[in-house]
Amino acid sequence: MPVELVRNLIKKEEGIRLEFKEANDKLPSNLFETICAFLNREGGSVLLGVKDNGSVIGIDETKTKKYSAEIASLSNNKNKLDPPFILYPSVVEIKNKILIHIQVPASSQVHKSNGIIYDRSSDGDFKVTDVSKIAELYNRKKTHYTEGEIFSALSEKDLNYNLLIKAKNLIRSNKPNHPWLELDDKQFFVASGLYRKDYQSNKEGFTLAAALLFGKDEVIQNILPHYKIDALVKIQNTDRYDDRLVVNTNLIRAYDQLMEFVEKHLPDKFHLEGKTRISIRERIFREVVANLIVHREYTNAYPASLIIYNDRVEIHNANNPIGSGPISVENFSPYPKNPTISKFFVQLGRVEELGSGLINVVKYLPIYSPGSKPQFIEDHVFKTIIPINLKGTAVIEKDIDAVSDAVSDAVSDAVSDAVKERLVKELIEIYRMNGMRLPEIQDKFEIGRATAQRDMKVLKDIDFIEFIGQPKSGKYFVSKPLKKIIEKGKS
User: Fold this and answer.
1) Beta 44-48 vs 90-94: how paired, if at all?
2) What is the pLDDT of residues 402-418, one digit of tens each?
3) Could you give the CA distance from residue 400 to residue 489 in angstroms, rounded to a whole number?
4) Exposure of 294 by Cβ count < 10 A (0-12 exposed, 13-18 middle, 19+ buried)?
5) CATH number of 229-387
6) What is the largest CA-CA distance in the chain?
7) CATH class of the domain at 1-143
8) What pTM was estimated for this model as a whole?
């Protein structure tokens, strides 16, 4: 959880979505009653190390690892939380005090703590024992969270088990000691909420979320004939499109395909965060793409889309809104539209935690496109608008073909095909980035300085690039002759 959000939380009073708790010698005895209540109602945040009145007292720094491990372990313990809902808390420092933040999303299932159902109101947690109130809680979950609908006829043969292997590998690379990795396949699906039992109807089986995450393509289309994500580039041909990708596969592959589409058409910028070089494009659009996937209302036939224009990227998806109008860091409360899918993407490492998407886009967009501010608009169709300036830098397949043909014609036959292919990629990247320094070329293509210098000499000799600026800070730019070739390829 970003520190800024925690700072905002401690300025508020406790309420239906916020609880303060002290944690001196051990975890609070009623911690999981609150977690259970949040899961059953609207989700919320628990801050350990804060008094009821909002005074920050902190917790013993030497106990943070122990407390965090206990929370993760107990949230996955059926005796403590049934069904389990694994949670990973964040440790933050506020006013020179250490706090633990536990972000609890609303769940699509009804949970118990120590065998008792808890719900949440503005006054705190309360037990739900009345049969009619319990039925009301189950019905509300069933109608609001369609991802949890059980499909009894959906069987193991309808799922792609190669994807299960991939998912476990992603989870392992994100959290090597993740408890799900010790489970067999059936237990894995149960623990992740993808296989469940409805205790009202006695119906049992895989859920819609399971079909969307692991279903074979034809199975998903059979369940949701309208399901697809339309990715378009509308820069040259705004009436139709320059390039198009129709995604109608499972959500794990859909994420990969959409990210590849973004990488193909949007330039990148590398940025030092501390001593680590990061891809700004990746930081922004992994959040945008993940949010489209995990917060979409899949039973709504409205088509989801990601459209790249020359001055912005727009993302539209059907939504089950909890409000209406623009959302900002200051006024939003993280609220999952598909808690099980959202939780699964967190375990895969493709989402940091609920609410991180908006924070990261706001943080990194000004670096990627100076002066730009994203827009997030909540309604029955959720809209995300990312302003950027791509005039003259978008690259489509015809551009790549034109550059490849030009390089083949201009470069000596003595140059190997592998080197020619790398030269084409370097030219395309220089064009997309509107200029690159030599170290950036080295990092991007994982080549040594001598190789990068040799490549640039070849490209300068055939008049495809030019160097502008001081020797240490200058950049290589695509030359006017090559720009003409690319523009001709666009026509």
Assistant:
1) unpaired
2) 788 888 888 888 888 88
3) 9
4) buried
5) 3.30.565.60
6) 83
7) alpha beta
8) 0.63
